[in-house]
Amino acid sequence: MISFLRSLRDLFHPRILAFVALIPILSALVWLVLGILLFFFFGDRLDQGLAHFAFLQSLRETLMSWGLSLGGILTAVLLMVICLPLIYWTSLLLMSFLALPYIILLLRPTYPLAFSAGTRARGAALRLSILVFVKAVVIYFLLLLLFWQPHLFAIGNGILGAWVNASFLAIEVLGEVCSPAEMKVILQRNRWRNLAMGFLLMGLLTIPIIQWITPVFGGLWFAHQILAQVHRQRSAQ
User: Fold this and answer.
1) CA angle, residues 2, 216, 88, in degrees to nearest 5
2) How distant is the alpha carbon of residue 191 from its chain centre?
3) How far apart are CA 97 and CA 94, in angstroms?
4) End-to-end CA distance of the chain
5) CB atoms within 10 A of CB 49
6) C-alpha of 132 from chain center
7) Cα 38 to Cα 31, 34, 35, 47, 98, distances in angstroms
8) Which residues contact 118 (CB under 8 A, 6 or more apart)?
9) What's the whole-number mean pLDDT along residues 163-182?
10) Which stretches within the chain are classed as H helix?
11) What is the pLDDT of residues 82-117, one digit of tens each?
């Protein structure tokens, strides 16, 4: 709870607010370009494939009966909806590259013992982070098979998103202050707490406007939580 409140406080730091504004814009621009390319090269093929689904066919017919002929717009909207988790994960990556180094620097005076060992595991953290996202993308595309069962798709997507939050954010923070061996121990010891925090972040993503600050807030929250734990652990030694 203390780490959550401290994260809310630090969210209003001027540099952090700049990252809050910048990261969603960059992520949206990246996926706007990718979306245009995907729709330009694969739009017709996707449109033909989606025509086989009764739900979409019924929706098209209903819209046409209202005098609305949307053509490829429906396909574009559906493609955007499918890409929403990927857009959020892109924001997490941008947060890690752009904001997290400054977050770590900002919190260093608060948790000095977390940095006392002088060890870092950036190489191990990078490998684990890549593995997390490779697994996540593969699982997500398998989950798309459940897209026409919205309740199952939503549950699966929520669990996957929480796991990505918990794994990626914890690994990125630990890589700044721990050895690979320490990282492994701390990740195993706190996997359920981290997962609970991941689920709470997924809940924030469902709230309009709040969803835009979630990547940076998640970085702050995990940084406070993990650095505090490493600080306490080293002070007890």
Assistant:
1) 125
2) 17
3) 5
4) 25
5) 11
6) 11
7) 10, 6, 5, 12, 27
8) none
9) 87
10) 2-10, 14-50, 54-65, 73-94, 100-107, 122-143, 150-174, 180-189, 191-204, 210-235
11) 778 888 889 999 998 899 889 998 998 888 877 876
How far is the C-alpha of 125 from the C-alpha of 118, rounded, in Å?
16
Entry field: residues in the chain: 237
Kindly report, residue by residue over 135-158, the tens digit of the pLDDT: 998 998 888 887 777 788 889 888
- Residues with Cβ within 8 Å of residue 112, at least 6 apart in sequence: 231
Nearest CA among 128, 189, 188 for reference residue 164: 128
Helix (H, G, I), strand (E, B) or coil at 208: coil
Task: Parse the chain into domains and list their residue ranges.
Answer: 2-17+85-235
The token pair that represents 77 in the structure block: 């909207």
Residue 205, classed as helix, strand or coil, is coil
C-alpha 37/C-alpha 60 separation (Å) is 24
Q: What is the DSSP letter of 121?
A: -
Distance CA 27, CA 47 (A): 25
* C-beta separation of 226 from 175 below 8 A: no
Q: Give the contacts of 20 (CB within 8 A, at least 6 positions apart).
A: 11, 212, 213, 216
Task: Give the model confidence (pLDDT) of 41-82 as tens digits.
Answer: 666 666 665 555 555 556 556 655 655 555 556 666 666 777
